[in-house]
Specification:
Blueprint lengths: L12 H11 L5 E4 L1 H8 L6 E5 L3 H10 L3 E6 L4 E6 L2 E7 L1 E6 L4 E5 L3 H6 L9 E2 L5 E2 L4 H7 L8 H7 L2 H13 L6 H9 L9 H12 L5 H9 L2 H5 L3 H4 L3 H12 L5 H6 L6 H10 L4 H12 L9 H11 L1 H19 L6 H16 L9 H6 L6 H16 L6 H12 L1
Parallel strand pairs: 2-5
Antiparallel strand pairs: 1-2, 1-8, 3-4, 4-5, 6-7, 8-9
Length: 417
């Protein structure tokens, strides 16, 4: 018998209370999904999902009686979030699918654990653990945990047709937990379903894709997505560019302690073409900040690695570091790969690294004059004020920010007279 009872999170008082609350009086509750899977794989556990035979109203009623906060996060699907000690526990009533159309599923509540397990997507995601920590495996998930096999439960093609998002989930879970090649049936089912992905909502696609891109190393998953034609379907922008830059970027992240960024990883796969990236952002419903990230990157000037520090500072002043930083990171990542076979590139690498540090540490110098200074000299309010300020600011930047306020006031004075 396999058990997860030794996991520290498993004996947390909050979790014990949920077990006591929902296991009593004919009810039953078990852990399911990521918490069980990750514990068995020796990985940290994120959110905690639970499944119960009790209907949502009964979960809410019992929580209310016990003074536990219950949030109806997904009441239509039977999900109640119980919050204790600030920690959320997602409790979902056992379900069976009544009808599916590839995008939405109509569900009915049930009390059959096997039916609930079989409607989940992957075998490694359908393991339960009871209040003793005993693992209950109804779909052969344990064997797949051991071999790190990401496999659909039942007939892969049928399971994908029930919910096309499972295509992306297949690759995402492969990125995080799979080893070797993806399961052949699953891969074939995903490849066949690719033209149906357009029926999914953009939000679901982007949110899945972002999670995939956040994996420690999404390289192999992206390779198979590309191979199966799924990547081009979702991100036609990657068609020409490809995913060749990903391994170098992942290596650079590891070697240079860069935080893995899903957006930078995506940037490495698409051309820096502002117009195409705007269309991509609209199509996938990226947030404003995410869309801006790609625009700033695409519009930032190309930095020659021969640039002098002073010229680089001026470039940062006019363009800001937001687009320059991803540009430098991608340049540096690809140069590191080339330098493996060409030691003469090492100085160039050092230079890029220094520029990157400079951009990351950069604080915009504040121009010491304002419109009030110009008005003070007797220039009447109007467009001329801005023009004079702009001219002085340009001089100040061209002089590498050396001129102080007194010098600039004097310059302004001679400009006016
Ligand atoms: P994570 O660590 O990302 O939270 P997870 O396995 O807990 O991984 P969730 O998205 O939180 O994933 O979903 C919880 C569980 O619900 C899954 O483990 C799976 O059993 C089931 N599930 C989620 N989405 C689907 C889906 N589209 N089709 C079938 N089952 C699903
Ligand atoms: Mg989860």
């Amino acid at each position: 018998m396999t058990s997860i009872a030794a996991e520290t999170w498993f004996s947390a008082p909050a979790l014990r209370r949920i077990f006591d609350l929902l296991n009593a009086d004919g009810g039953e509750v078990r852990l399911v999904g990521g918490a069980v899977r990750n514990s068995l794989m020796g990985l940290p556990v994120g959110d905690i999902d639970m499944a119960t035979t009790l209907v949502p109203e009964e979960v809410v009623r019992r929580a209310g009686d016990a003074g536990i906060k219950a949030v109806p996060t997904g009441i239509a699907h039977g999900t109640i979030t119980l919050v204790m000690d600030g920690q959320p526990f997602e409790v979902t009533t056992l379900r069976r699918d009544v009808e599916t159309d590839g995008r939405h599923a109509e569900v009915a509540f049930g009390t059959d654990w096997r039916v609930d397990a079989e409607r989940r997507d992957l075998t490694i995601n359908a393991l339960y653990a009871d209040s003793e920590g005993e693992v209950i495996d109804l779909v052969g998930g344990m064997a797949d945990i051991e071999t790190r096999t990401v496999r659909f439960i039942g007939d892969a093609q049928a399971r994908v047709a029930e919910d096309y998002l499972r295509v992306l989930r297949f690759f995402r879970f492969f990125a995080y937990y799979g080893s070797g090649r993806p399961d052949a049936d699953g891969l074939r089912a995903c490849a066949r379903a690719k033209s149906s992905l357009s029926s999914l909502s953009a939000e679901r696609v982007w949110s899945e894709m972002k999670k995939l891109l956040a994996a420690r190393d999404p390289g192999r998953a992206l390779l198979w997505m590309r191979q199966s034609g799924v990547l081009t379907e979702i991100l036609p922008e990657t068609e020409k560019w490809g995913i060749d830059a990903i391994p170098g970027l992942v290596a650079a992240e590891g070697a240079l302690q860069w935080k893995p960024e899903p957006l930078l990883r995506l940037a490495s796969m698409v051309p820096p073409d502002a117009e195409r990236l705007e269309a991509m952002a609209a199509r996938l419903r990226l947030s404003k900040a995410e869309a801006a990230y790609f625009q700033q990157w695409a519009k930032s000037p190309v930095v020659a690695d021969t640039i002098a520090d002073t010229a680089f500072d001026r470039l940062l002043y006019w363009n800001g570091p937001a687009g320059v930083v991803p540009r430098l990171k991608l340049m540096l990542a690809s140069l590191r790969v080339k330098a493996e076979n060409d030691l003469e590139l090492l100085p160039q690498m050092g230079k890029l690294q220094r520029l990157l540090t400079r951009a990351l540490d950069w604080k915009k110098p504040v121009f010491p004059l304002t419109g009030a200074d110009v008005l003070q000299t007797g220039v009447p309010a109007g467009p001329q004020v801005g023009e004079m300020l702009a001219a002085l600011e340009k001089q100040w930047v061209d002089g590498n920010f050396h001129a102080d306020r007194a010098t600039l006031v004097a310059r302004l004075g001679s400009m006016v007279s």
